[in-house]
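USER: If only I could read C-alpha cells as easily as an amino acid sequence. It would mean a lot if you studied the pair and described how this chain folds. Here is the record:
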Amino acid sequence: MQFKKLHYFCSLKTLTMPKRIVFFFIGFVILASLAFYGFNRWKGSREKVDLWTMVPENAALVVETNNHQALMEHLRETELWQSFSMLPVMQQLEENMAYLDSVAPGNQRLDRFLDEKNILTSLHVEGKSEVSYVFYVPVNSVGEHRFLRTLTENINKSTIFEEDSRDYQGHLLTDITNTRNGSRFTYFTYHNNIILSASPVLIEEIARRASRGTEASVVAEFRNVNYLDQPDVYANVFVNYRVLPDLFGLFLQEDVMPQVRYLATLCHNALLELKLDRNKIFLNGFSNAENLKNSLHNTMQPRKPQLLGVRNYMPNRTAMLLHFGLQEIARLRQPQKANKSAYAATVDSLAQSFRQEAALAYMESNSMSQSPDKVAYAHTSNPALTQHLLNRLGNQLAEARKEQPFIEKYAGYSIQLLNTPELPEQLLGRVFQGFEQSYVVQVDNYLLISEEMATLRHLLDDILEGNVWSKSVGQKAFLEETLQEANFSLYLNTVNAWYILNRYTTDEERENLLQNATIIKRFSQVGLQFSMVEGRYYTSLVIRRPEQSNTTGQDVFEEEETITFDNRLDSRPFPIQNAVDRSRELVVQDSANVLLNVTALGKRGWTDSLGTTLRSEIKQIEYGPDKKLRYLFITSNRIHAINNQGQALENFPFNLSDTLSLQHLAVFDYEKEGDYRLLVDDNLGNLYMYNMRGSGVQGWQPRRMDYRLAAEPQHLRVGGRDVILVPLENGYIYALNRNGDTYPGFPINLKAPLTSGTMAKIGADLRRTEVTAVTRYGNVVTFNLQGKVLNREQLMRPSKRALFQMVPESSSARSYIIVRQEQGKVAILDQDLNELFEKRYVTSAPKIVQYFHFGGDNRVYAITETGPRKTYLYDSKGKLIGGRSIENSQPVTIYYNETANDYTLYYVIRNQLKKIGFSIGE
C-alpha cells in the first residue's frame, strides 16, 4: 500500500514537473521580453536626436540657445530687456512662465531646468494670418525627468490648468489650458526631448516627422557651423528667406509685397550668430544665394562689394534706403521689358553709363495719408556723358509730346523734366517702380531722380546745408557699426519711417504697431547688408539704439547765459545766420526800437536804429556778387534790407505811403538766380510787389484783395509755373500768377474765416498739387491748384468757443500741426487729424503756440500764456519738459544740437536775453 502511495506520489510529481517548467519558461520569456522591450525603450530614449531634424521646412526663423540664464542676465544688465519686456507677447510669456513656476516641484524652478542646454525655438506662419512658435527642449538627466513628471502631475492637480491627452500616430499629445488667461499649449516627448507649442497643428506635423524618422535638417547646408562655440555669442539664428515674405505679409499691405518678395529672392537661407551689446543687437553670418530663375541674385550676379558713397548726398530725414553696390549697375534691369520707342536707345546708353551704386531712398513723411517722397540715385563714372544723354533724352521726349524741353535752375543746379512714365524702372530695374514722371538733377557724380520737383529742391537744400548722413554725428556712429562695402543694403530709421510704417501696415496690425511704438522707435537705426564672399553672402544685421540723454524727471533746464541790455526787450529773439560762417545768431528789438544782434558766442554785434516797431520776422537771402547773407524785414510803411554790419543796402529802405500799415513780408526768387521779389500787404488787403532796385512790379501796385490777409502769401513753383497763394481772413483763397492774375478755378471759398495760412504738397502740375487749409471753426479743406476741392473734414468741436489754426513748423515749414483752443484748454493735432495731447491753463486768453521739428521724434511744442508770462515746453509725447514753466511772454527760439543730442532755448524777459540748455529723456 505504501509502495502504491509512493508510486502515485512519484507519478504525480513526474506529471507536475513539466508544468512547472512550462510556467517557468513562460515567465522567463515574459521577463526577457519585458527586459528587451525596456532595454530598447531605454536605448531609444537615450539615442541622441538632432532637434534640427524635427523642425518643419516651413519655419521662417529658428533660434538655438545654449545658456538661457546667461542670456537673461545679459538682457537685464543692459537696457534691452527693459525694451523687450514691454512687448505684449513677452508679457504673456512671462505670465505663463510664472504660472508654471508656481506649480513646479521643490526648488528646481523652470529657469534652472532651461539653463545650460541647447534649446530651439522655431517661428512659423500659419494659415496666412497667424504667427506660431515651437519650443524644442532636451531633458538631460534622471532628475530632470523626475522634475517634469512631478510638474505634469502638479499641473493635473492644479486649478489653474486643465489637461487632456490623446494618441496621435503613436505619440501621446497632451493639451494644457490655462483657465486664468485662456492660453493653451500642446506638447509631447520624444527621445528625451519635450516639444511644445501653442499650435496643435504644428505639434501634429512634428509628430508625423518623428514617425517618419529620417527627415533632413533645415540647417543641413550649415552642418559644420556652430557659432555657440564662440565667445559672446548667445544664439544661432536660422533664416528661411523663402518664407520671410509670408511673415512680412501678415503685417504689410499687399501693394508693397511684390517688392518685398522680389528683394527676398537674393538668398534662400542663412545661419547667423546673435551677439548683444549695450543698446545694440548684432546678427552676422552667411546666407546662401537664391539660384532660382529671375531671382534678385541671378539678376545682380554680384562680384566686388561697393562703398556707400551716396552717404554724402543722403539727407538726415531719410526714412528707408535700398542700396545696390555692383560694378555693373545695368544688370539690375534684367530681364528688360520690350521698348520700341524712339528714345529706347538713349535710355539704354544712359543705363550703361551707371557704375558702382544705385539707390532708392524714401523720405520722412509727416502724414500717414500721403505717399512718401522717393528719390532714385545712380552713380555715373562720366558726368559729362551722362548729362549729354540726359539732354538728348529730354529733347526726344519733348519732341514726341510736341512740347518745349523743361529745365529749371535751382541753387546753381539744373533740374530737368523727363516726362515719361517709370523712367527709373527703365534705367535701374523693377525695384525702382512707381515714378509717374521724372525730374532729374546731377550733383557731382550722382544722378538724382524724383517724381516731384519740390522733392529735389528740398534735397538740394539739405545737401547744401550739410544735413546729410556723412555730416551727421548720430548717423556716422551707426554706419561705423555696419559693413563698409556691400552688394545690397537696407537701412531703416524707424522714427523717420513712423508714418510710412503706419501707412503700409495692415489695418489689423496697426494697433499692435502703435502699442509697440516705444520699443520700435527706441531701436531706431536698422541696417541689413549682404556682401558676396567666395560664392556666399556675408550677412550683417545691426539694430541700434542711438545714444540718449540720461535725464530723468528732475529740472533739466540749465541756464547757460544771460545778456542784459539797457532797455526793455519788446520782440522775440529772431533766429538768423551769420553772414560769413553761417553760425547761429539772434536779433532782438528793444523798447527804443533798436535792432540788436547777438553772435553765436553771446557777444553783441551790429545794431540798427529803426525808430519804429518791427512788423515781420527777419528774412535772410543770399544777395550781391559775394553771395553773402542779407537781412530783410518791414516796419509799418517801409521795407528794409541790411548787411551783416547793420548797414542799409543800396536803394533801401523802400519808403511806401505814410498811410499804409504793412502786415506781412514774403520774399521769393522765381528762378533761384538772386532776382528777388518782395511782396507786402497792408491792413486793407492791398498787395505791393517790388524788385531789389525798388521798382514796382506791374500788376501789383497795388493788387487789391477783397479782405485783409490771414497769413503771409506763399510762393509755389509747379511744373514751370509760379503760383502765389493768398489766404484771406474771410475764408477766400486766391492763386495768382507772376502778373497778379487769378488762376482759373479761384478764388476758393472755404465758407468760414481763416486765421492761419496754408500748406502745399507740390505735385507735377496744378492738378496734382494739393493745398490744405484749416478754418477758424475746424474745417480741414484740401484742394488742388485747378480750384477743385478734394476733401472737407470737420474736426471735433467740443463747443462753439473752440477755435482752430494751422501752425507750421518753425524752421522749414515742411510740416504742420493743428491747434484747438477752448476756454483755457489747448489741444495739439497731427496732420492725420489725430489728437496728440491736450493741456489746461489758468487763463482763457489765446495762447502763442509754436512747433519745432528737427527730424524724427525730435519735436518740441512751446505754448506761451502772455498774461501770466509763462512758457511751457512739451516733448513729442506731450510730456512737460523739465516739469515746470519758464517766465516769458514772447515767442521763443529753439535750436537742436545733434552732436550732443540736446536743445538750446532763447527767450526774453524784461531787459534780458536768456540762453538755456535742456535735454529730453525718454
In short: The radius of gyration is 36 Å. DSSP finds 18 helices and 54 strands in the chain.
